[in-house]
């Protein structure tokens, strides 16, 4: 692919995508914020619109999952959960989503029915309404299956928005569950390993987990580790805050099935998308209480404290025998079309 054409890496959540957004998209947009809220320039999980004593959080996301139905979910569930989670990690209660559907001519109506029911069931888990949408059909040879675009709206009190850039030295890092489940389950399914493993996608709406953490009062920063995976999310949080992070490798929850598939395929589970996990910074004196609160919810049962924020410029992973390695942000997600 030539330098002047879009390639798959441009949509994969890593360094290549970041460069495209910075140079081609942001540089060509004039007004990027409303009333001084979190803006497009901040490249957080959403933007905010201050209104009196509150701030609306708005986010939007496109979904091109392959396959449309996979162990643990489908494109409907991922469309709802992904958008709900982007609102939630900004500390806002998700209220509503819109849903635009672009379908290939000949798409089975039974599949569409199943997808929309799945989207609705996911929204119901966290009391989110589907309030508007759009439907388009394209010629059979112009689109592969179905594309869904969801926009989410949430609300928080002014001053209570959580950013991905506000880690402080001494904060503990919590991840709400095992890493790599979504990307590795889809890749396993694509490659025909499904009969050998019970691995399923982690796709889930995370507001109830996040609300429990916020109620404790110690959350300093949050991010949704989707495209580019945990490695991209933790590096972005570190670089935006101007700090380093020291992680304990043995504390990071990774399922044995994920390890097995990653070894077969040669893919780092730190670099693949997660769709039902949150990475957060928490004040050290409230970390254990926050962890306990998260573990009380079904989507947070395997949460763990995995490291802390330190002075420095890098994300460092410390091995059980005392060695250290730098965890870098990926160039791109090695598993395309999973979210």
Automatic annotation (TrEMBL):
Q: What name does this protein carry?
A: Hydrogenase isoenzymes formation protein HypE
* Annotated Pfam families: AIRS, AIRS_C
Q: Where are the transmembrane segments?
A: none
CDD domains attached to this UniProt entry:
HypE (cd02197)
Q: Which residues are in the PurM-like N-terminal domain?
A: 44-155
Q: What protein family is recorded?
A: Belongs to the HypE family.
Q: Which GO terms describe its biological process?
A: protein maturation
PurM-like C-terminal domain mapped to chain residues: 168-317
In the UniProt record, the gene name given for this protein reads hypE
Which top-level group of life is the source organism from?
A: Archaea
């Amino acid at each position: 692919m030539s330098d002047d054409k879009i390639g798959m890496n441009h949509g994969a959540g890593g360094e290549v995508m970041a460069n495209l957004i910075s140079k081609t998209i942001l540089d060509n947009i004039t007004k990027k914020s409303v009333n001084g809220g979190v803006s497009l320039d901040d490249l957080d999980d959403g933007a905010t619109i201050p209104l009196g004593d509150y701030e609306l959080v708005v986010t939007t996301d496109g979904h091109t999952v392959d396959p449309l139905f996979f162990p643990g979910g489908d494109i409907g569930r991922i469309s709802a959960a992904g958008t709900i989670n982007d609102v939630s990690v900004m500390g806002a209660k998700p209220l509503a989503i819109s849903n635009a559907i672009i379908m290939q001519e000949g798409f089975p109506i039974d599949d569409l029915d199943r997808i929309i029911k799945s989207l609705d069931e996911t929204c119901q888990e966290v009391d989110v309404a589907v309030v508007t949408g759009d439907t388009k059909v394209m010629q059979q040879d112009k689109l592969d299956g179905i594309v869904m675009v969801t926009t989410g709206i949430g609300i928080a009190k002014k001053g209570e928005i959580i950013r991905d850039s506000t880690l402080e030295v001494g904060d503990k890092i919590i991840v709400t569950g095992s890493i790599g489940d979504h990307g590795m389950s889809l890749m396993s399914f694509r490659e025909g390993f499904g009969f050998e493993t019970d691995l399923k996608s982690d796709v889930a709406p995370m507001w109830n987990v996040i609300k429990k953490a916020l109620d404790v009062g110690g959350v300093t920063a949050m991010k949704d580790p989707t495209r580019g995976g945990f490695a991209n999310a933790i590096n972005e949080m570190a670089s935006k805050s101007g700090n380093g992070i020291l992680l304990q490798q043995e504390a990071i929850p990774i399922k044995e099935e994920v390890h097995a598939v990653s070894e077969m395929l040669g893919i780092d589970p730190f670099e693949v998308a997660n769709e039902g996990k949150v990475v957060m910074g928490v004040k050290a004196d409230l970390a254990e209480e926050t962890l306990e609160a998260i573990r009380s919810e079904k989507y947070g049962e395997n949460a763990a404290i995995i490291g802390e924020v330190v002075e420095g410029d890098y994300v460092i992973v410390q091995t059980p025998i005392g060695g250290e390695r730098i965890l870098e942000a990926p160039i791109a997600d090695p598993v395309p079309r999973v979210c």
